[in-house]
Amino acid sequence: MVRSPLSILDLVPLAPPGGAAAALRASTDLARLAESRGFRRYWVGEHHGVPNVGAAAPAVLIAHLAAATTSIRLGSGGVMLANHAPMVVAEQFATLEGLHPGRIDLGVGSAAGATAEIARVLRQGAPAGFAGKLADLAAFLDGRHHSGIRVSPAAVPGPPLWLLGASESSARLAGELGLPYAFAHHLNAAGAEGALGTYRGSFRASARLGEPYCLVSVAAIAADTEEAAFRLWRAAGGPDGVAVGDGPTVRGALAVLSGKLAADELMIVTNVFDAAARRHSYTLLAPLS
C-alpha cells in the first residue's frame, strides 16, 4: 500500500487523429477523475516545441481545469521561470488564487522546456538569471519587492511556491530558501536519493515552510495485465525508470520507492497517448480505487 499522498503530473500527450483539442479534453476528463478518486494535486507542465506534448501554457490550462473541478489542488509542474518575467507569473497565479482560493500551487523550474532556438524567442534576448528571478518572484508573491511595486490583485495572497528540479543544485537552493521541493525522479531516477538528502540537509525553516517537504514525481503505467502495461510502455518509447505492470504490481513498486526515498508525496506521470488507457492506469493506482 502506498502511504504517501498521490498526485498527478500531466504533460498533455498528443496523438493523432484528435490532436491538441482531443488531448486537452482528455486532460479535463482526467482532472475530474483525479478529483473523484482522491488524488491530492493535479499539476501541468510547460514545454515548447516538443513533439507530442501539448502542455505549453500552464496558467491558462490551470484556469480551465479549476473551472471544471471543485476541490482538487491544481498547479504548475512547472512554470519555466527563465522564460517569463517574475511579476507576470506572480500576477497570473495571484489571479488564479483569487478565483480559486486555497486550490492553486505555483511550481517553478530552471529549465527552458524548449530548444535553444525557441528559448531565445521566448526570452527575447533577456538573460535567464534563474536564482534572481526566483527571488523576485517570491518577493512579488509576498508583497515585499524592493521596487515597492505590488502585483495585481494586491489583496490576494500568493499561492504556495514550490521549486522543481532534478539535481543536487536545485535541491540545495530549495532547502536554503525553505521551499517545498519537487524532485523529477521520472527524469533522473539515479539522482533522487542524493538530491533529497541534500535538500533535507540544507533546509532552513522559512515563513513559507517549517519543515522539509519532498514531492517525488515518478513515471508509472498500470493496466489489467502486465502484458498490456508493457504494450503501453513500448508505445510511449519505453523510457527507463518506469514502474510498469498490473495495478497491484505498480502500487507495490510505488510503495517501495516512497519508503526508500522517505517521500512526503508521490506525483505519478503516465505519459501514454491512449487517453482511455491513461485514465484506466490512474484508476488502478488511485487512492480511492
Automatic annotation (TrEMBL):
CDD domains per record: Flavin_utilizing_monoxygenases (cd00347)
Gene3D superfamilies reported for this sequence: Luciferase-like domain (3.20.20.30)
One Pfam family here: Bac_luciferase
UniProt GO MF annotations: oxidoreductase activity, acting on paired donors, with incorporation or reduction of molecular oxygen
Domain spans labelled Luciferase-like: 14-233
Entry GO CC: cytosol
Family classification: To bacterial alkanal monooxygenase alpha and beta chains.
Protein's name according to its UniProt entry: Luciferase family oxidoreductase, group 1
Highest classification ranks of the organism: Bacteria, Bacillati, Actinomycetota, Actinomycetes, Streptosporangiales
